[in-house]
Amino acid sequence: MLKQFPIILFLFAAAIGLQAQPEYPKSNLYLFKVNQEDDGSISFTEPRYLTAFNSEGFNNDPFFFSNTELYISVKEPGAIQSDLYKLDLENQTKLRVTETPEPEFVPARMPEYYTFSAIRTEKDGQDDVYRLWQFPIDQLTNGKPVFKYLNGIKDYLWLNSREIAIYKEEDPTTLSIVNTANDDIQTLATNVGPCMLRLPNGNLAYVQKSRYDDWKIMEKNLYRRREPARTLIETLPNADHFAVLPSGALIMGKGSKLYQYNKFTDDNWTEVADLRFYEIRNITKVIVSPDFQVVIVAD
């Protein structure tokens, strides 16, 4: 049985006006501990339901700031926009981090540790403009944009304090690396999915899409960027989010099931868990913490 996260509410920052935003799909978050056996098999234990406080709303974009701190995007039914919340997994409390006139989503801790970033949706006339902002962890100031002019960022991954991989939902979609010091942009791939993660060897993994169903997870050497990316494995059908385990194995979800692929031992995806028992039916994202906890996002 899933343990429910208790409802404890804190607030930070004042809202000054609100603006209409598109509807957000209903989604919920579930936490599991992962055990890996000597033979490479894994099991999922100690399930917890993290979003009982907003079970009919939007809960997404989980990011582990530490093994016990999970930042997420939340929009409650009837609310106009999404804001960021911090879940304290050890004390089982939650803290509302932002309550601003604009929605924020996709939080991430920045490499120098004292700040975090998030995408903010701003208005430019009738158009939505997506800009990456940074905020102090201690919330003593209101934050500022990471880039003065660059916008359109829908997802991102900090590579180090000077470089960030960004996903832009253009036509075609693009994966690029931007230097935060001079805004220099190097495009790595087009027709990509939004998910991008570092592998244990330091390389960048991402999903290369096509007009057909043969989407692939690619590995790009960030130290020899002129070399072409190489294929790791085809994705599960129409799935474009994956996670990387500490061992380097990949995890993907499809329906109620989780699959694992280890390039050193496996020829293809192997089913490792079916979460229907927990009423998890449509897995959309899987996030892994440094100490081997897994957060499942499911519609």
What can you tell me about this protein's structure?
There is one protein chain. This protein has 299 residues and is mostly beta strands. The chain has strands spanning 3-4, 28-36, 42-49, 58-64, 69-75, 83-88, 93-96, 104-109, 115-124, 127-136, 144-145, 153-158, 163-168, 174-179, 185-190, 192-198, 204-208, 216-220, 230-234, 243-244, 250-254, 257-261, 270-274, 283-288, 293-298. A hairpin with a 5-residue loop joins β16 (192-198) and β17 (204-208). Mean pLDDT is 89; it is low at 7-22.
Features:
single chain; 299 residues; mainly beta; 5-stranded mixed β-sheet; 0% helix
Task: Please summarize what this structure is.
By secondary structure, the chain is an all-beta fold. It contains no helices and 25 strands.
Radius of gyration: 19 Å
Task: Compute the number of strand runs.
Answer: 25
Helix count, DSSP H or I runs of 4 or more residues: 0
What structural class do helix, strand and pairing data support? Answer: mainly beta
- Could you report the average pLDDT, rounded to the nearest whole number? 89
Approximately how much beta-strand content do the residues carry? over 45%
Question: What percent of the residues sit in helical stretches (DSSP H or I)?
Answer: under 10%
Write the layout of secondary structure elements.
Elements: E1 3-4, E2 28-36, E3 42-49, E4 58-64, E5 69-75, E6 83-88, E7 93-96, E8 104-109, E9 115-124, E10 127-136, E11 144-145, E12 153-158, E13 163-168, E14 174-179, E15 185-190, E16 192-198, E17 204-208, E18 216-220, E19 230-234, E20 243-244, E21 250-254, E22 257-261, E23 270-274, E24 283-288, E25 293-298
Parallel strand pairs: 1-3
Antiparallel strand pairs: 2-3, 2-25, 4-5, 5-6, 6-7, 8-9, 9-10, 10-11, 12-13, 13-14, 14-15, 16-17, 17-18, 18-19, 20-21, 21-22, 22-23, 24-25
